[in-house]
Amino acid sequence: MKFTKILAALLAAAMCLFAMASCTSTPAENNDGKLTLKIATNAEFEPFEFLDADGNIIGFDVDLIKAISENQNMNFEFSDMKFESVLASVSSGKCDAGLSGLTINDKRKQAVDFTDPYYIVGQVLIVKADDTVFTGTDAAAIVEQLKGKTVGACNGYTGKAFIEGDEDFGYTAIEGLTSVGYDSAAVGINDLKNGKLAAFILDDAVAEKLVAADDNQGQVKIIPIVLTEEHYAIAVEKGNTELLSKLNAGLKAIKDNGTLDQLISDWDL
């Protein structure tokens, strides 16, 4: 990402009215009379949500909710937690919304309601730079080459569901594959570099950032075969039609006025 884009993103994030607070209640009015949304996230998913050098949550999703909130005259604050806790905090009503690169699927729709999608992603493999195993030219060939391998994935992420099999996603377990779960993709990539994994599976946009990081350049690469197609959306407590309508209205507005496309460009997605 170019320096100017990073600077612009940081400045935009600094203007947001958010803090890493605990999710404890329903939306409340601030002193300015605006509704304040409490949003659950996992800030280990660059470029969608991650921490800057000062510990502030920044990223595409942050700029997205800022634009939606401005359109709907709302404020917001984030609560940073493990990814596996994000949907639980929303479904229990502890947080008003979940925004953390959340893929829509049937199982999740039983626990929460989703807005309209805002981004399409796919799963890809990260492998060592000198890898000669994963030579397939389509998804079916890559899956065949994954059989019997040890593969890392983040706990709760779609990639883990893909390699282990998941009826709600429509994925069949890959024969003979050993899955290793991680709370952090960065830790998984280190194990890959150290030869403990044959591959690591991750959302494509996030994989690109990890591979390009200074610590990883020249040591790992992406196999450029997309294995899935997924749709990211914002989660709200099931039955909260008022908030869902506000978020969808704001999302439609920023799609129509070009803001969403500009954010996608700004974050090199």
CATH C-level category of the largest domain: Alpha Beta
Largest sheet: 6 strands, mixed
CATH architecture of the largest domain: 3-Layer(aba) Sandwich
Rg, alpha carbons: 19 Å
Estimate the strand proportion.
Answer: 15-25%
- Counted up, domains total 2
Low-confidence stretches: 1-21
- Overall mean pLDDT score? 90
- Looking at the structure, what is the overall shape? globular
CATH fold-level topology of the largest domain = D-Maltodextrin-Binding Protein, domain 2
Which superfamily, in CATH terms, is the homologous superfamily of the largest domain?
A: Periplasmic binding protein-like II
Head-to-tail CA distance between termini: 10 Å
**Secondary-structure element order, as H and E?**
HEEEEEHEHEHEEEHEHEHEHEEEHH
Task: Count the beta strands.
Answer: 16
Structural class: alpha/beta
Q: Helical content, roughly?
A: 25-40%
Tell me what the structure shows.
- By secondary structure, the protein is of the alpha/beta class.
- It folds into 2 domains: 153 residues, Periplasmic binding protein-like II (D-Maltodextrin-Binding Protein, domain 2); 101 residues, D-Maltodextrin-Binding Protein, domain 2 (3-Layer(aba) Sandwich), CATH 3.40.190.
- Helix content is 36%, strand content 23%.
- The strands form 4 sheets. Strands 1, 2, 6, 7, 8 and 16 form a 6-stranded mixed β-sheet that branches. A 5-stranded mixed β-sheet has the order 12-11-13-10-14, sandwiched between helices.
- A hairpin with a 5-residue loop joins strand 4 and strand 5.
- Helix 2 crosses helix 9.
- The longest helix is centred in the C-terminal third of the chain and has 16 residues.
- The N terminus is likely disordered.
